[in-house]
Amino acid sequence: MCLAVPGRILDTDGDDPLTRQGRVDFAGIVKQVNLAYVPQALAGQYVLVHAGLAIAVLDEQEALRTLACFTEENAEEGDA
Amino acid sequence: MKYVDEWREPAKARRYAEAIARVTTRPWTIMEICGGQTHSIVRYGIDRLLPEGVTLLHGPGCPVCVTPAGVIDAAVAIAARPDVTFCSFGDMLRVPGDGDSLLAAKARGADVRIVYSPLDAVALARARPERAVVFFAIGFETTAPATAMAVLQAEREQLDNFFLLVSHVLVPPAIETILGDPGNLVQGFLAAGHVCTVMGYAEYEPIARRFNIPIVVTGFEPIDLLQGLYLCIRQLEAGAAVVENQYSRVVRREGNVLAREALAKVFTVQAQQWRGMGEIAASGLGLAPAYKRFDALERFASGPAPRERPGECIAGELLRGRKKPCDCPAFGTRCTPEHPLGATMVSSEGVCAAYFRYRPRQAAERADGANPGRGAP
Amino acid sequence: MSDSSFTAPACPLPAGASDIIELAHGGGGRLTCRLIDDIFRPAFGLAPDDFTHDGAELGIDGARLAFTTDSYVVRPLFFPGGDIGSLAVNGTVNDLAMCGAQPLYLSVGLILEEGLPIDDLRRVAASMRQAALAAGVRIVTGDTKVVERGKGDGLYVNTAGVGLLRAPRPIAPRRVRPGDTVILSGDIGRHGVAILAVREALGFETEITSDCAPLAAAVLDLIDGGVELHCLRDLTRGGLATGLIEIARDANVTIELDEDRIAVAEPVRGACEILGLDPLYVANEGRFVAVVPADHAERALAHLRRFDAQAAAIGRVIAPERASGVHLATLGGLRELDWLSGEQLPRIC
């Protein structure tokens, strides 16, 4: 229902609670994104962006864990 | 880690498909609620990787498809006003109400703009104080925080030329409607990962308990979907019915607290019409009393929204999971993306359009050679 | 929960959808095709092969000529990598090249809107001259009309062109055979994304430039190199997918595509992800496909890579199983590509 795309924060600008923004790199396209809902996000981190606003910071540990959790060895138990 | 390519690796996807085949012993019917997931499933052929007997139904999760015809008619009427600059997401432009689409209004001279973000509409209002800038706020819980931020920015800047036509909808009441239907076929749900990014998934836990149904919060890439289906089927096989989170790199149980606070501040929960499904209690968001001055309907009062007319389209049954596009006698013949009978065909994310675009052979078989544009052999 | 025994589905019929011209009729997809089949083919008494290619082949007193025309209504008039003038020259040059012709002469018809700054017109004219020089064609005749303010987007251009056929044998979909190789001349999607980014003010900091360029030199190089060309198609509106669907339909074959061989530049891919667009359907103005016999593919690639290192063999022609079409391999098997319905619009979902 909602197209949201991960991008990497290049830099952030300001700390106003409504207009804090950052330049975000989406596979080569750089765009200003509102960061008001992810005040903890830092340059270098990946955020999930929908309709011009970041709505989450991506968690690399979780990403690696879920990518690994169904590999051949443990697919049987499929444990998370 | 680029968070995209890793979830599209074909070899890995095949291993997950094999894992699903290993745990599946019986037929199961699972609904993905979200149109974006439907799009991925059909684009990547995920449903064809599943064992015989596992059926995917496509739920009412395309915001463009479920926006009521009456609201689109109101949008077209407001856009036609000479003092209005009307801003909308791109895919909403093609969808007709009972009358025209916004694209047709634009062709007749209305100032209709595609925006990528509601904040772009705010910027337009800031730059053009002599115009009334109206943003068509559609979408689910994922999109509503963007609308809320637009309202909060406009409020702080005291913009008196920024308005919203709000038709935001909420997922859990739609799931409850589908599960509460006596003809319900759905045995497991993939919950929409991006809706849960905002809302978290605590509100799905009572639904899983009450209807004794597994719900797996799932992402949008091929491997996300296969993992979500694996987790869901594993629960079904074991007789479990809990909420699991496949999309843990993004979704936390509590969601995005700041975004939820903004929603609570700007909106109130209200009854909402869903195109093809009728009215569902407490399934929509309207502007809270403190923000009513931003309401485009109040500002450009254009009468009550008309009720939807019945027609040949079976979108209602599709959205409830009772049928698939191929079950519709009009699919691919009287109903095509150029001349849609219903919103599920007109939106590129709608289930009928997705089937038509990526499964044209099925459409052609339906047409029995009666479709001259298709290049018969 | 109200209405849980819902029985009456409620999607309305759009009113009078088929009896007026819609934007999608100009989109190069199914509706354009229907206009040709339902209106122009009977009205002009066209043979089945007419109007299935970018231009017409004419035999006049022993000379073999190619003739074509095209109109340009792009907005904005100026965009990164080109403008309506260079587009109008290159577009017609490329249509002639796709017939296997050396482009020679162009006409230019201009429809100007009252209020257009003369400076804009001067820039467009200069750009047309530049593009004509680069493509080795002469602009030899023209026409100018002015319409009232509000009746045009500043400036519309029509160009027609004549070229000398250089290919020893006709280049047309009907010559496409099972076993042929499909070659793409470079990466795809630049023009459409460049235009969309400027037109809808999408606020990309990265500038994507249009691929607008003349293709005649590359085609003539293929011909001079002795490459047997069964079909050529420049990939404009509707993109690679539409171009191949048209060829498959007209040739009554199936084309199998290898998606991972199709080059898409990183920023174009990024923009398409953000906007929910499929690069296969995004417009180009300087790319073409060549369908050649498999044993000519290597030679064709060697020639094309002199012009663009990203030229690649992206698929093969097979006999149609049931209906003609274009198939793309996906995780779950072959997926059939279909025409686009009108222009791709950015998706929210």
Automatic annotation (TrEMBL), chain A:
Q: Name one GO biological process term.
A: protein maturation
Organism this protein belongs to = Pandoraea thiooxydans
* Taxonomic lineage of the native organism: Bacteria, Pseudomonadati, Pseudomonadota, Betaproteobacteria, Burkholderiales
**Protein name as annotated:** Hydrogenase assembly protein HupF
One Pfam entry for this protein is HupF_HypC
Query: From the UniProt record, which GO molecular function terms apply?
Result: carbon dioxide binding; iron ion binding
What InterPro entries does UniProt report for this protein, alphabetically?
Answer: Hydgase_assmbl_chp_CS (IPR019812), Hydrogenase_HupF/HypC (IPR001109)
Family classification: Belongs to the HupF/HypC family.
Alphabetized SUPFAM superfamilies for the sequence: HupF/HypC-like (SSF159127)
PROSITE patterns in UniProt: HUPF_HYPC (PS01097)
TM stretches of this protein: none
From TrEMBL, chain B:
Q: What is this protein called?
A: Hydrogenase maturation factor
UniProt record similarity statement: Belongs to the HypD family.
**Domain of life the protein comes from:** Bacteria
Question: Lyase among the record's keywords?
Answer: no
List GO BP terms, alphabetically: protein maturation
**Which keywords has UniProt assigned to this entry?**
Iron, Metal-binding
Listed GO molecular functions? 4 iron, 4 sulfur cluster binding; carbon monoxide binding; iron ion binding
Which Pfam families does the annotation name?
Answer: HypD
Highest classification ranks of the organism: Bacteria, Pseudomonadati, Pseudomonadota, Betaproteobacteria, Burkholderiales
From TrEMBL, chain C:
Write one Pfam family the protein is assigned to: AIRS_C
- A GO BP term, please? protein maturation
Q: Where is the PurM-like C-terminal domain?
A: 177-323
According to the lineage, what is the superkingdom? Bacteria
CDD domains per record: HypE
Residue stretches spanning the membrane: none
Instruction: List residues of the PurM-like N-terminal domain.
Output: 56-164
Q: Which family does it belong to?
A: Belongs to the HypE family.
NCBIfam families on file? hypE
- Protein name, UniProt field: Hydrogenase expression/formation protein HypE
Q: Which species?
A: Pandoraea thiooxydans
Its taxonomic path starts at: Bacteria, Pseudomonadati, Pseudomonadota, Betaproteobacteria, Burkholderiales
